[in-house]
Design goal:
The chain is α/β, with parallel strands linked by helices. The chain has 3 helices and 7 strands. The chain has a domain of 89 residues: 2-Layer Sandwich (Nucleotidyltransferase, domain 5), CATH 3.30.420.270. The strands form 2 sheets. The chain has a 5-stranded mixed beta sheet with strand order 4-3-2-5-6, with helices on one face. Strands 1-7 form a two-stranded parallel ribbon.
């Protein structure tokens, strides 16, 4: 008489735990990818305790090599006014956010403010310039 065992070892591989692990990794990478800083140009912003927030229309960057960028597009000093004007054309009260490296001399910041003031005088608009800062530690 043959004796049969009640507990048989199955040769099938259960993949349900593997799919759970894949979905958890997918969710983890989706969440951490949204936490990446949106600024493509690396700057060390000056620090401030001010918490003014505004809806930005155009972003002007000045890096530590004193180069201007309007929405991540390189711009020369001479073309700054025309490029900003083309970006805010048709808007009544646009806000230009100036993100300048803290090592940049004040004259480069004033050049951007003068460019916006020239646009305001020419179009009789009231566009604003806001200097972006990092939180004070």
């Amino acid at each position: 008489m043959a004796i049969k065992t009640r507990n048989k070892i199955g040769v099938n591989f259960n993949t349900s735990s593997m799919s759970d692990l894949v979905f958890l990794l997918l969710i983890f990478f989706m969440l951490t990818s949204t936490l990446v800083a949106p600024n493509a140009i690396k700057l060390l912003l000056p620090s401030s305790s001010s918490k003014t927030m505004a809806k930005q229309t155009v972003t002007v960057y000045i890096n530590d090599l004193f180069q201007y960028y309007v929405d991540e597009t390189p711009v020369t000093d001479e073309d700054l006014t025309s490029v900003i004007n083309s970006r805010i054309d048709g808007q009544a009260d646009a806000t230009i956010v100036l993100r300048s490296d803290k090592s940049v001399p004040v004259q480069y910041v004033v050049n951007v403010i003068d460019a916006v003031n020239d646009i305001n005088n020419a179009t009789q608009q009231n566009h604003k310039v806001i200097l972006a800062t990092s939180p004070k530690k």
